[in-house]
Amino acid sequence: MAVGTPGVRRGATRVVLVVDDDPVSLESLKDILQASLPGVEAVTAASGADALRLLAVRRVDLIITDYRMPGMDGVAFLRAARAQAPDTPRVIITAFPELDAALRAINEAGVEAFLTKPFAPGTVIDVVRSILLDAARRRGQQPPQPGAPQRAPQTPDASPAAPTRTPAFGSKAGAARSARPDPRG
């Protein structure tokens, strides 16, 4: 994106908004995304309120937020973000995986994926790549990485960095999509 020009695209740049009240998590995720996904610019906000102000002036291609934050939690933020940018995919991350929290995120905020901390960097990279590719296809745009292979469905792993799976989700990190009707019919 051109500096100082909200909403103007340059090439295949995709903007990912990362929201987390923990500065270490926020910067780590930003660094992982920008280092691992060419054509991705990560912008950050330390609260839901800050993120909503940013969304008012800048278009983003994906929102990733922490679930537990002071003031406005991740689901409340994503509900408000959904009203501002209804076509922008949303992902929620949490260190406190609970089925009720996952269902609330899906039903109230329309999340594409629900990831649990700690997660391996490759997991979040795969989820982000998959969602951005899907969004680009829906919009008829060039994917952020031409020729990038699609993410293969993930299988649960016994390592502590593997995303937690619940019966509400299949073996794929983006399985939250199946909880909502497919708009394409």
Task: Describe the protein's architecture and organization.
The chain is α/β, with parallel strands linked by helices and 185 residues long. The protein has one domain (14-144, 152-176): Rossmann fold (3-Layer(aba) Sandwich). Helices cover 35% and strands 14% of the residues. The chain is built from five helices and five strands, in the order βαβαβαβαβα. It has helices at residues 23-36, 48-57, 74-84, 99-109, 121-139, and strands at 14-19, 40-45, 62-66, 90-94, 113-116. A five-stranded parallel sheet has the order 2-1-3-4-5, with helices on both faces. The N and C termini lie far apart (33 Å). The model is unreliable at 1-10 and 144-185 (pLDDT under 50).
